[in-house]
Amino acid sequence: MTDKIALITGASRGLGRNIALHLAKRGVHIIGTYRSGAAEATALRQEIEALGGSAVMLALDVTDTASFAAFAEKIADTLKTNLGRDRFDFLVNNAGNGLFANFAEATEEQFESLVCTHLRGPVFLTQKLLPLIEDGGRILNVSSGFVRFTMAGYSLYAAAKAAVEVLTRYMAVELGARRIRVNAIAPGAIETDFGGGAVRDNHDVNAWVAQGIALGRVGQPDDVGGAVAAILSDDLGWANGTTFDISGGQLL
Predict the structure, then answer these.
(1) What is the CATH number of the domain that holds 100?
(2) What is the pTM of this model?
(3) Is the dihedral of CA 65, 71, 73, 79 positive or negative?
(4) Count of CB atoms situated within 10 Å of the CB of 186
(5) What amino acid positions are annotated as catalytic residues?
(6) How many domains does the chain have?
(7) Which pLDDT score, from 0 to 100, does residue 96 have?
(8) Quick check: 85 and 137 in contact, CB under 8 A?
(9) Partners of 250 in the beta sheet?
């Protein structure tokens, strides 16, 4: 994977950060985005550079579709100026937000936030970036285990992610002529700051979740970052239009 280039949205923290590090360790040049965590983004860039890799971090709000044309131009300029390339190889649509809302009390504002972030953003950002993705490249969308199993309070979030999985299959068909593989991952419970970091920081919550996972523990960010690096590699080059469950066997 040396000399490949990956664009990862929401790369400054959580799973995006871990994905960036795993790819960088495999020689992939990183272009990451962040919404408000400029300091975190700088820290990630410095960490990747300390590993001998290269990274550029750019501000992007994935809910602001009006900014996507200018962002695509910035990506084109970054590719030429920093990497001497016209196109990049991997797009990881990772940026997201967690939101707990029981169905009966959920508001239109909450619905709009989830749909804009997890569905509308990836749709129209990917559209704008398609001319900059190499033929034979990869697109990876991030879904959630909540599409497969249920837990009260995540109906809107899960519905948006379910749409992402269907979208992934259609993208795979429609981009097949360019040999662009499109897949998704559906992580289960992972020890990150998602949902306020309860799974990571609350021992009782962690233990309760772990008892429902076949492998007996909650996932670590490295479990996802390593899986993404594998999915984007040529070793899984024949996988297309599928969603990979990365949950350790949660709630089977």
Answers:
(1) 3.40.50.720
(2) 0.97
(3) negative
(4) 23
(5) 157
(6) 1
(7) 95
(8) no
(9) 213
